[in-house]
Amino acid sequence: MDPSAANNPALLHFLKEEEQRVMMNEAVAKMTSVCWDKCVTSAPGSKFSSSEHSCLTHCAKRYADMSMVIIRSFQSKN
Description:
mainly alpha, 2 helices
């Protein structure tokens, strides 16, 4: 990378946004994996059963809520 590019505010902003995008994609992938393993107990058909749908909804909400608690905890320590 060109040394002058390291001080380019637009480039730094872009890189920060890309880093956040990657982190978000990783979090969604992890949530999907955790909730899928927990909630989908049989071979999926064309639709989720009502219990699977409910479990997936609640699991995703809990995962998102806990992620926010963890983020706020880290932010308050900095």
